[in-house]
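ugh ok fine here u go
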Amino acid sequence: MHKAGFVNIVGNPNVGKSTLMNQLVGERISIATFKAQTTRHRIMGIVNTDDMQIVFSDTPGVLKPNYMMQEMMLAFSESALADADILLYVTDVVENPEKNLDFLSKVQKMKIPVLLLINKIDQTNQQQLGELVSKWHTLLPNAEILPISALNKFGVDMLLKRIKELLPDSPPYFDKDQLTDKPARFFVSEIIREKILLYYDKEIPYSVEVSVESFKESNDLISINAVIYVERESQKGIIIGHQGVALKKVGQEARRSLEKFFGKKIYLETFVKVDKDWRSSQKELNNFGYNPE
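structure:
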């Protein structure tokens, strides 16, 4: 009998959801950096064996929205509650369990299996962990609690084993050789955005969106033309840097990661444009893919 199902990963920002997703899928599907709000979309990673297909879905961190883009990010997280067969609720050892009670109350009402994962357990001791477990047990009495360290791969195999046990009987939802539901262009823009997150300070990364204007693939080369959108002229200056040094650095770092990701030589050209309304315009956000199905 074949098993298949949607395993959706939710939780507050910065608890390690994307790191966990990458460990479970075994490919670098979600960009994971130390800055909050790295993941802005729902990203699926698909694990296939002969008799099983697990469709993992990483979501943006749950937050109180301040502008339209964040409202749409929250909609991605809430849509993950609606179509899951198994829910992975990720927290960590430093987060206050009562941080987001609105979202937790939705999780409480779910009839599907909920696995509560307490991540980063390498940063605590046995006693504190025990206190956390009992606190979470009160908040989500129906959840199974598993302590893990996604970064160190501790508990990840055990989690995978449990997911396999809980998967419903079902034919596969996607082709067996498919790794993700996202097109190649999506990963190009995510990888460039990751480099911007790592390379620039303060608000700059959160005011940036990347659009891939052209993606041409031949046998041994991919030529990519990408536009980095910012909200203000001053941000454009910062992204480009003195004599273009900053943008060149981002381009080089992105090209290295893209070559690793696609296994081919990459020719990458990047441009910077100002679009002052992109974070608050429904039309612009739709163009950038912020439209939960």
